[in-house]
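Our consortium's second objective concerns turning raw sequence data into structural hypotheses that experimental partners can test. To show how far this objective has progressed, the report includes one record in full. It was chosen at random from the queue rather than selected for favorable results. The single chain below, 273 residues long, was entered without modification.
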Amino acid sequence: MTPEIAELDQKRSMPDEEAPDTVPVPRALVPHLGETAILLDIDGTLLDLMPTPREVWVPPGLSDTLNKLTERTSGALAMVSGRSLNDIDLIFAPDVFRAVAGHGAEMRLSVGAELDGVQAPPMDKELKRRLAAIAKLSPGILLEDKGYSLALHYRLAPHAEKAIYEAVALIRADLPTAPIEVLPGKFVCEIKHSGFTKATGVRELMKHEPFKGRRPIFIGDDVTDETVFAIMPEMNGLSFSVGRRAIGVNGHFDAPKDVRAFLAHLLDDTRLE
């Protein structure tokens, strides 16, 4: 096993016993909604994971909950996702939400704008071509080109995980100066430009109205969300993990349905008015 593979293996999994003894999230932790910014990962957090990225769907009632929370927070609700803005809009159509997208590569600060900022250039075409060829290793590996990154989904081919990461490591070894970063996730290996993350996107988001000066609450489920978990204390924020007891969070949810129920219950809690 190469050092690169060993490093990625360590990032992909964190045993529960190494995480703090977190507890299910009590609503009492949540401050007044007028002082709060709600930041939500999408896949595996707000929405249930599906065999392919295109199969995710918005359950009944969630759209109403998100729109009401947006109103109650004066617009300070945003999606924080590895998906592109275009993907986010397709999932939640006809609703449009503020967002940090593409792992921080794209940002929308106002609902009336398509794109307010680009934090990274598109990935080099030749590099992308080499990485895309990895999808040919096995049937069931799905290739997703996000422009700023490239994702290899293997939920339909879990046996190919090791071969995928070995192939990526070989390309990185062949191009040691290429400005790329590998993001291990739940049955996905994503390769993106280095220099931007969900955390850099959230930091920028929180500098602008209606988020500026509010206490952020971030909910995420995967390794890529750990950069945001890490910066919540500096913003006096709260962070919650989904499905696993991540290190440094204030609590956890067992599944996306519990996150959706929590968000709906926030609207019923008169203390938060």
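The partners drew two points from this record. Confidence is low (pLDDT under 50) at residues 1-23. Residues 121-193 form a domain with the Alpha-Beta Plaits fold (CATH 3.30.70.1020). Both points have been shared with the crystallography group to help prioritize constructs.
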